[in-house]
Amino acid sequence: MNTNQKTVLVTGATGTVGRYLIGELLAGGHRVRALTRSPEAANLPTEVELVAGDLAAAPPEGLFDGVDSAFVFPAAEVAGFVKAAAAAGVAHLVLLSSLAAALEHERDRGSASQVHHAAIEDAVRDSGADWTILRPGTFAGNLLPWAQPIRFTGGVRGPYPTSAQAPIHEADIAAVAAVALTGPGHAGKHYPMTGPQALTRIEQLDAIGAAIGRELHFTEITPDEFSAEMRSYGVGDDIVSMLLHYWSDTVETPDVVRPTVPQLTGRPARTLADWARDHAADFA
Ligand SMILES: NC(=O)c1ccc[n+]([C@@H]2O[C@H](COP(=O)([O-])OP(=O)(O)OC[C@H]3O[C@@H](n4cnc5c(N)ncnc54)[C@H](OP(=O)(O)O)[C@@H]3O)[C@@H](O)[C@H]2O)c1
What's the gap in Å between 72 CA and the centre of ligand 1? Predict the structure, then answer.
């Protein structure tokens, strides 16, 4: 029996990080309540108490009853939710933010991600509850759009093939979130986090190739060609510009690897090879 059993409210529960987080919390013997807009489609473990609701709307009656800590997904509007949680006595909020909010690089100033996450961080710090802010860098899941070109063409097209990033496995974000939500000593902390290695985009593709047993080719295109392709898929210029600045900067200056995942969880961070194996079915 877990003598430190907590009741944790999870928002973003049906998302990638949220599902891993729920697995971590249940494995640790904690009680989980999940807020979702579509309980009928949630497909979460039966031990999870589902509550229908929207982060951006007034919290449903009783949502915060008995809740020790809450995981806050950075939806468009969460200020009302975090104020209500603090007022209802939720002692600790753990926010999924982004490394962009740390403004470590000039490229982040005014970017879509920096503006969005900085505003949500302010709301959480002003909520009145204790808080911990998780600041992951690029998610490994950002490579999923490569699945279709890999399946159909045996490779990908993109700019800056030698730029190097340190993608983080979403399960590791969840593992750190679970530690912060259920253990002492995390209030008032900002946790920057990345994967364990900076890999060039070619090496990232190779990791996927190794997981599916195929040699994959990276075809370099210009930033202008990339922008035009993204626009044709309806991707906004703010997102395209954010990506291009990130990749062009990380040609000369690869992502700095952060030790947060091993420090907080006590085990090595998952590698991109691990992530690629977990997602082999998406790419094969
Ligand atoms: N991609 C990156 O490189 C990166 C880097 C740093 C930070 N981030 C942050 O991480 C987020 C993605 O996390 P993820 O991959 O776990 O998300 P995800 O898989 O896209 O899932 C989003 C979840 O949020 C819930 N949600 C959205 N709006 C909601 C609302 N108004 N009310 C209640 N729930 C709402 C949805 O649940 P229901 O539909 O069940 O309600 C859904 O399960 C990004 O949006 C970004 O803020 C991303």
Answer: 10
